[in-house]
Design goal:
It is built from four helices and five strands; from the N terminus they run βααβββαβα. A hairpin with a 2-residue loop joins strand 2 and strand 3. It is globular, with a radius of gyration of 18 Å. It has a five-stranded mixed sheet, with helices on both faces. It is an alpha+beta fold. Helix 1 crosses helix 2.
Length: 166
């Protein structure tokens, strides 16, 4: 067959984490279309470090096909500042290259992240999606995620007159 679809979902090596950095930059670029404020290219260095740390601690899973990384998921246990009545897993980023979407890659990555978080003792999993990214929100709803907390945002007018008014 033209596509020897040998999709492997595996824990990322540190070498693979470097390649994932490029995909993360693509993800951040794509999210700016949904009003994300993250500067993709400018964060490359710190993201590369974070991805390497995730790889070392088994918190980065990649989808690999014919040696190419076609998707990834980053996850961690929430070590928040408050004592909670649940142990919360967090899916921090989930990305599938555009040309491989709709083939179940994202679902396989998400399910693997959930299983690993459960193995780490998580009772619930939380994640964030950009509010106007309807495709992402539909995808997560199909996987049983529901709105838990809503973040609201408003730009502040940097209006030079405001101080003189009155």
């Amino acid at each position: 067959p033209p596509h020897g679809h040998r999709m492997e979902i595996e824990l990322a090596t540190v070498a693979q984490a470097e390649r994932v950095t490029d995909l993360w930059v693509d993800l951040a670029d794509e999210q700016t279309q949904h009003d994300s404020h993250v500067l993709a290219e400018r964060n490359r260095g710190s993201v590369a470090d974070e991805l390497a740390r995730h790889a070392v601690t088994d918190r980065l899973v990649v989808a690999v096909e014919d040696g190419e990384i076609v998707g990834f998921v980053m996850f961690t246990l929430d070590r928040g500042s408050y004592e909670m009545d649940v142990t919360r897993g967090v899916v921090e980023n989930l990305y599938v290259v555009p040309e491989r979407r709709g083939e179940g890659v994202g679902s396989a990555l998400l399910e693997t992240a959930e299983a690993r978080l459960e193995g780490l003792g998580a009772d619930t999993v939380t994640l964030e999606a950009m509010a106007d990214n309807l495709a992402a929100r539909r995808f997560y709803r199909r996987h049983g995620y529901d709105t838990h907390r809503v973040q609201l945002e408003k730009p502040l007018e940097t209006d030079t007159h405001s101080k003189e008014d009155g």
